[in-house]
Amino acid sequence: MQNIIIFLHLTVALIVPEIMKKRKILPVIGLTLLGITVLIGCQPKRVSSEEPDFSLVPKAQATPVKSENTEPITIAAVGDIMLGSTSIDETFLPPEDGRDMLKEFTPILSSADIAFGNLEGPMLEGGKNEKCPPESTRCFAFRMPTRYGKHLKEAGFDVLSLANNHTGDFGDEGRLSTRKVLDEAGIKHAGSDRARYSTTYLETKGKKIAFVGFAHNNIVPNVNDLTAARQFVAQAGKNADIVVVSFHGGAEGEKAQNVQWQTETLGTEKRGNLPLFARTVIDAGADLILGHGPHVLRGMEIYKDRLIVYSMGNFATYGMFNLKGAQGLNAVFEMQIAADGKFLNGKIHPGRQEGRGIPVPDKTSAAIRKIRFLSQTDFPATAPKIADDGTITAKENAKIESQKKAKSQKRKRF
Ligand SMILES: [Zn+2]
């Protein structure tokens, strides 16, 4: 592994100065660089040994709203978002300064009661790149312009996870700036750093919804610490009607599309035993699990009537990601959650990233077929039913529906 990383570092060291000089990326070199970028960009970091202090976990402002409202809540969710980076130079920013970059999916995101995504990088101007050595040309850190906060707001995002391996690319200054940008835009965030930023609360249809942001690196809470995970979720459950857990975890890339029933690793880094983690947090009171991190779509399953989405893939990752094959597929997951937290039904809106990373709907529906195949392969007994049009139904509900249909057809015949 060490040798591979050294080799990749050398390759990038050779490629990057050429790019900086010519500003022309030959397709082959470009793809090689993009692949390596993600590999190196997501390099392992130390897992924090800091003991979480639960007294710091934010409390909801008021007691849970115990309203009689039993209307379902619609949550739309996407995976990794990195709208373009100034960390090398401005050529890594999207056309029109990103103005229309998210417009194709804005109607779906805006119409949901809550729209969620994983913001894979800090938003700041200036600052100090804390990831890469000063004269390094072989290491990548992401830095989105602060003015892009409004693109996220205009696209309809209500809450973002900052628990991932890029939020800290520009250290504490980057984390602070990102929180400020999102606070000013009116977008909630979970998991940017220590326990006090782990959890955030939103209110919709008279219900209080908690979002807890987990990651595999030095973020608190951590997917590898199941004892603390239980406590974070239980704490959130005391303050909210519905608890959503977001996690950044799992190995990365084309070969990491299947969920492993053991701790996944990348290099020396532990990236979580995700089925065990998901079940543990549901047992502790979580109602919906939204995974991201592998840069590819993964399967889904239902456990105790709660939906687990293991990876939502890259959603809008501009200029610095490998978008080849499975890594270019994306989707918006639209889910109806009952007032008691049970999964009712949902819809996969299939998409892909075009060019250097603009999300667009995909008429071929490749993402739907991919998610269905992976769900059935990895979770034969617990996968939800996924129809050709992307409709997601819990298998039990699907059975009831088909019984109803059969009954009414029988009636018609008489
Ligand atoms: Zn990542």
The proportion of residues in beta strands is 15-25%
Instruction: Estimate nothing, just give the exact number of structural domains.
Output: 2
Nearest-integer average pLDDT: 87
In the CATH hierarchy, what is the superfamily of the largest domain? Metallo-dependent phosphatases
Describe the structure.
This protein is an alpha/beta fold and 414 residues long. It has 2 domains: 2-41, no CATH class; 70-401, Purple Acid Phosphatase, chain A, domain 2 (4-Layer Sandwich). It has 9 helices and 18 strands. Strands 1, 2, 3, 4, 13, 14, 15, 16, 17 and 18 form a 10-stranded mixed β-sheet that branches. Strands 5-6-7-10-12-11 form a 6-stranded mixed β-sheet. Strands 8-9 form a two-stranded antiparallel ribbon. The longest helix has 21 residues, at 2-22. Bound molecules: zinc ion (ZN). Residues 42, 120, 164-166, 248, 293 line the site of zinc ion.
